[in-house]
Design brief:
Rhopdopsin 7-helix transmembrane proteins, single chain, 385 residues, 4-stranded antiparallel sheet, alpha+beta, 65% helix, 2 domains, Alpha-Beta Plaits, two-stranded antiparallel ribbon
């Protein structure tokens, strides 16, 4: 078997593997597609499947596994480039939803941003009458036309804009706590873009299809992790993740290191729910979560914040002292006051906090540590009453 034949088989195998992987992920995420952002993700996946499928069929024709036809080659290239444009557009809209962009707040703006998709379609249609992007010559050899690069350019507009928006957010002080998320967004757009450029220079290397499949797999694993460990309302760790981390910290920490458990409870939360409704109650919980994130920001990996249940939150901390814990509590209170002012709601959210100081050598379970923190918390509650 020749090297060319082996190379072709490898190309087709990589593409087929990519299709199967992407289709499995799409099937597994169908339940999420009811959300607007996930619908756009699903549409990008369907476009991606068309792209990989058309590329695979073209490879089969090129290597004479399927009958070669000039008409079929042009049709497959039409599908390939139009599905690439659609994929980039839906991918871009999905990223904008993840960033809570004003661009997706209005349907008209979202529709207007699809202009490059329609330009791409127009170029493909014109190409049937005047071969300016790709064609099959008289020797039945596929060739690139003088405007071939424009097919990449109109798709890459969405990729570059998404990367630029994410990078801008990365260096914006107000989005400091979202930098990790924004960095991932840049990578999810950047890696397939690099794969596409490699395939542009080396057409026989299926870099685009492989990179797309890898990125979708990473996104799926990221979703799965989030569903398992993140509270959907506040985007904090959930109770299960909190207990897991506490166990890891107490088991692996230096025996002389102190761990702090801070129990946080919203004051008079029931009255907010009863008076203003559960939507406002949820908004109050998100406000508390945001204040906590900002209040502990400078401690980074030394703390973990979680929603324990209802209007109860927990912070576990290690590698810091009592003065840091005291300052952290004050900072959370200050941030909450600022958020109350910005919200201009008819109520102000306040919290009470109780602290338990645990030595690693004590080997206390989380429930025991939480009980100690609860006692301190309820002393504060009594003083408020």
């Amino acid at each position: 078997m020749s090297d060319i034949t082996l190379y072709s088989i490898l190309y087709i195998e990589i593409n087929l593997f990519s299709i199967i992987l992407v289709m499995i992920i799409q099937f597994r995420t169908l339940g999420l597609s009811r959300m607007v952002a996930q619908r756009n993700f699903s549409m990008s996946i369907y476009s991606m499947i068309l792209l990989i499928l058309s590329d695979t069929l073209w490879a089969l024709m090129e290597n004479k596994v399927l009958p070669y036809s000039a008409t079929a080659v042009i049709a497959l290239k039409d599908i390939y480039f139009f599905s690439a444009s659609l994929m980039c557009y839906f991918w871009f809209v999905y990223f904008e939803y993840l960033q809570d962009s004003p661009l997706v707040a209005r349907r008209g703006m979202t529709a207007a941003s699809s202009v490059f998709v329609w330009i791409q379609l127009l170029l493909i249609l014109i190409n049937h009458f005047t071969p300016i992007t790709y064609y099959v010559d008289e020797n039945r050899v596929y060739r690139r036309g003088m405007l071939f690069v424009s097919l990449y350019a109109f798709s890459y507009v969405y990729v570059m804009f998404a990367c630029a928006r994410a990078l801008h957010g990365f260096f914006t002080p107000s989005k400091k706590d979202q930098r990790r998320k924004l960095f991932k967004l840049v990578m999810f757009a950047f890696i397939p873009a690099i794969g596409g450029l490699i395939q542009y220079v080396l057409p026989r290397v299926p870099a685009l299809c492989a990179s797309l499949a890898i990125v979708v797999l990473v996104l799926y694993l990221d979703w799965t992790t989030e569903l398992i460990s993140i509270d959907p309302l506040t985007k904090l760790s959930n109770r299960k993740q909190l207990l897991f981390l506490y166990e890891q910290w107490t088991r692996n920490n230096d025996e002389h290191e102190t761990i702090y458990v801070v129990m946080i409870d919203a004051n008079r939360f029931k009255s907010i729910n009863d008076t203003y409704g559960h939507i406002e109650g949820d908004a109050a919980l998100v406000r508390i979560a945001d204040a906590m994130k900002k209040g502990v920001a400078k401690y980074k990996d030394k703390v973990n914040i979680a929603r324990y249940g209802g209007d109860e939150f927990v912070i576990i901390a290690r590698g810091i002292g009592e003065e840091d814990i005291s300052e952290m509590k004050k900072e959370i209170g200050r941030e909450l006051q600022e958020l109350n002012k910005k919200a201009k709601s008819p109520y102000s959210v306040t919290v009470s906090m109780g602290v338990a100081r645990i030595d690693s050598s004590e080997g206390l379970s989380f429930s025991d540590a939480a009980e100690i923190a609860d006692e301190d918390l309820y002393m504060q509650k009594r003083s408020l009453r």
